[in-house]
Write a structure and sequence with these properties.
- Strand 1 and strand 2 (98-99) form a beta hairpin.
- It contains 8 helices and 3 strands.
- The relative contact order is 0.11.
- It has 230 residues and is mainly alpha-helical.
- The termini are far apart.
- Helix 4 (105-126) packs across helix 6 (165-185).
Length: 230
């Protein structure tokens, strides 16, 4: 009779968090790992640094062209902004048949900082904390910037400026992927995960390299101080 009463009794309610997965698996279109997570916020976070850097390049070059008395139409400024965006991503461009000699490092560092910050922010927002998820998010950033780079190289540059779409996609995607990986390193603990998988000799070699870098920096600073004081 006791077994029959157990069968007829209503089931006990499930715990409040029973529907929430605690093991963070690969990112999917549905909810996982303590709440909903989707590719939509990741794609928006990947496109946001591209938009900000494009607007910054367009405004900067607009000021330069206005000071030089060049054409200031909206279409011209949009195309010049695309050229500046590609140059900031270290894409080789050709102006009037001559390659641009030096690609600036400061704009590339600014773009990389924007991408790293956006990746870290979306990781904290969506609670992405697994190395496998970090690889997918960094790949999304790289794909978004690579596609934008190829599109700009194909159709958004001024008539006198040319760029190879393949090189544009590769350079923009590489910069975005590496920068996003740097931004995801802390939230997803990429360095501890890499050290756990690395051979035993990697950690001593890394420590020795860091000590050597510190010695070189200290020696360089000493030489600069001596040159300024003597």
């Amino acid at each position: 009779m006791e077994d029959v009463s157990l069968l007829l009794s209503p089931p006990s309610p499930a715990p409040a968090d029973a529907g929430v997965r605690r093991d963070c698996g690969p990112i999917s279109w549905g909810p996982i790992c303590q709440g909903p997570i989707s590719w939509g916020p990741v794609i928006r976070a990947a496109c946001w640094p591209a938009l900000v850097s494009y607007l910054a390049a367009a405004l900067l070059l607009a000021g330069l062209t206005a000071a030089a008395g060049a054409d200031g139409s909206v279409e011209w400024l949009a195309r010049v902004g695309a050229m500046g965006w590609l140059v900031a991503h270290h894409v080789p461009v050709t102006i009037d048949g001559a390659p641009l000699g030096a690609l600036p490092l400061l704009p590339a560092a600014g773009v990389a900082a924007l991408i790293a910050r956006g990746a870290a922010r979306v990781a904290r927002r969506l609670r992405i904390d697994q190395p496998a998820d970090a690889a997918r998010v960094a790949g999304a950033f790289a794909a978004a910037h690579g596609v934008l780079g190829a599109v700009m190289a194909l159709s958004a540059l001024p008539v006198t400026v040319t760029a190879d779409p393949g090189q544009a996609a590769l350079a923009c995607g590489l910069l975005a992927g590496v920068s996003a990986g740097i931004g995801l390193a802390r939230p997803c603990e990429l360095l501890p995960a890499a050290l756990r998988r690395a051979p035993a000799w990697v950690r001593p070699g890394l420590d020795a390299g860091l000590w050597g870098l510190a010695v070189l920096l200290a020696a360089g600073l000493t030489m600069v101080l001596l040159a300024l004081t003597i």
